[in-house]
Amino acid sequence: MHVVAAALIDADGRLLLAQRPPGKHLAGAWEFPGGKLEAGETPLAALARELDEELGVAVEQATPLIRIPWRYNHHELLLDAWCVTRWRGEPRSLEGQALRWQLPIDVDQALLAPADRPLLQALRLPKSYPITPADAPLVQRDHWREQLAAAIVHGERLLQLRLPLWPRDAVRELAADLLPLAERYGAQLLLNEDIDGARALGVGVHLKKAQLVTLAERPLPWRQLIAASCHDAEELAHAVALGADFATLSPVATTASHPGATPLGWPAFHALAEAAALPVYALGGMGPSMSREACAAGAQGVAGIGGFWPDS
Ligand SMILES: Nc1nc2c([nH]c(=O)n2[C@H]2C[C@H](O)[C@@H](COP(=O)(O)OP(=O)(O)OP(=O)(O)O)O2)c(=O)[nH]1
Questions:
Q1: Considering Cα of 223, then 228, then 232, then 234, what sign does the dihedral take?
Q2: Does the Cβ of 71 fall within 6 Å of ligand 1?
Q3: Which of 34, 43, 154, 298 has its CA 20 to 30 A from that of 173?
């Protein structure tokens, strides 16, 4: 079943949510306006028809957001989500459904239809995900504190502290130092691998491939991000099963940090990202300027080391 769903975003960045009416599948859950494609209909035509029928608005501008394959008990669906940023008419409830406008950050994901959680993450997450270089020595502590702070001030909203040469406590200390600034700017920090450290600090964690397969359930609450390093369909499926918020998929191109690895290339990346029920960042040989190309291949954005820091 192919279902289109619209994230209507207003000029203040608020999102329109609708409540599924009694008697329908997932009654009471909050969702994105939309519905099933009719025979012979294109996704955009279905989106226009559903928004006209449900809200009385005419779509003027829609761009692809994410495609989520999902399985409920009795049926499978492809939730095909679009960002609608321009429309004519004032959205109103034409089918008796409750409506509300909320900033994506304020939406309680527990109240959403389960397949909509990755959609909400796709709306919340930025286009770039800088990662600290694995070979940074501990003596560069001050330098990396400054780089991370400058990146946050310059607009980065999602940053991974991956510093395997440092003692864990030193990485935790760095995260704790940066936390007030990150909170002020609405940026999220993720520790690589260190679940206990993330739990103690209230930040996110980025799971390594080896950790991913050993975990049976989400190791942190929903308000702390969980990311996973993935390289194939099986690892992506595991990340989804675990309830990870997003994944990186690598290597897309050849990269200095993993010279022997065979690159996926964009076509294989696209197929894997689209089949995964979560936002996926392209990693490996990426630069911040490649985010448009990556998004065209179904990515949430780009992740990387070189080129992502103010001094590089
Ligand atoms: N419209 C919509 N459906 C969603 C969302 N999330 C989600 O899991 N679904 C599921 C619920 C349903 O199983 C399916 C869509 O069915 P629907 O009942 O909205 O479709 P429709 O508007 O064509 O309704 P109907 O003619 O069958 O009454 O997709 C969402 O955000 N929007």
A1: negative
A2: no
A3: 154
ipTM surpasses 0.95: no
Sequence-distant (6+) residues with CB within 8 A of 73 are none
Contact (CB, 8 A) for 277 and 69: yes
Query: What is the Cα 83 distance to its own chain's centre?
Result: 14
Backbone angles phi, psi at 141, to 5 degrees: -50, -50
Q: Are 18 and 31 in contact (CB under 8 A)?
A: yes
Ligand 1 center to 227 CA (angstroms): 28
Q: Name the closest-CA residue to atom 5, ligand 1.
A: 31
For 242, the enclosing helix (H) or strand (E) is helix 233-242
- Does residue 143 have its Cβ closer than 6 Å to ligand 1? no
Closest CA relative to residue 81, chosen from 259, 274, 291, 292: 274
Alpha-carbon distance 117 to 250, whole Å?
23
Atom of ligand 1 minimally distant from the CA of 54:
22
Both tokens of 43, joined, read 């996704």
pTM listed for this prediction: 0.94
Distance CA 86, CA 107 (A): 22
Measuring CA to CA, which residue among 306, 303, 299, 312 is closest to residue 156?
Answer: 303
Instruction: Give one DSSP letter per residue of 140-197, joined into a string.
Output: GHHHHHHHHHHHHHTT--EEEE--TTS-HHHHHHHHHHHHHHHHHHT-EEEEES-HHH
179 in ligand 1 pocket by Cβ < 6 Å?
no
Q: What averages of pLDDT result for each successive group of 10 residues across the chain (312 residues)? A: 97 96 89 96 97 97 95 92 96 94 94 96 97 96 97 97 98 98 98 98 96 92 95 96 96 82 93 97 94 95 93 78
Q: What six digits make up the tokens of 310?
A: 């103010």
Distance, in Å, from the CA atom of 98 to the CA atom of 158, rounded to the nearest integer, reads: 33
